[in-house]
Amino acid sequence: MTDTTAPTGREFRIGPIFTRSWSIYAANFLMFTLVAIVAGLPNQLGGDFESSAGAVRSVIVFIVSMILYFVGQAVILYGAFQAMRGRQVVIGDAIGRAFNRFFSLLGISILVGFGVAIGFMLLIVPGIILALRWAVAVPACVVENKGPLESMRRSAELTKGHRWKIFGIWVLIAIVAIVVLIIAGALAGLGVVVAPQGLGRIVIAAVISLILTAIVTAYSYVLNTMIYHDLRTVKEGVGTEEIAAVFD
Q: For the whole model, what pTM was predicted?
């Protein structure tokens, strides 16, 4: 089995976080990708703001997407920790664990989502600062059984002193996402060539985009889990078993 845990007291380093996260994701590729696909489905139903009905639908899609984003992250977080412990990843257990924390995750999705959104409206930089500050609020909520505000404070405590490195991880994953979108566009273009007219073309393009986006999303969920894991390892000197003991 690949060693995906970090020794206690080690430095918080970007490279190992990426490689160990990929090892975990690759070993559970189908399961984690399906979770991300489900979390991303509402985005395929986006409306527009040209009509009142379209505006209402867009707002609803945004809210549902935001909630599923955090719930999906919680599901994959549980699975990733089980994989790090060398245990079998059972999707039912992962979903159950996530929904046990549903209302706390709902609170985080509202507070973090709108807080970051307001920050981005204030010339972007405040939004980035807040997003980095609350980067591991979901892991703190799921692993440490904390409420929304406690999870956000805990995240601020853990990320302090390492936010530039976390920002670097986000930049790298954003570059990957851009490349994936380019590939998705190219593949969708090929699909348009071979697909029948009308609806078939739209469906092919949407499916390709959804799958490729889900792959990046699922991997980013695992990355966030590993960030939380390594922050606790570095700052508190605890190992994987100690962190994940709450799941037993």
A: 0.85
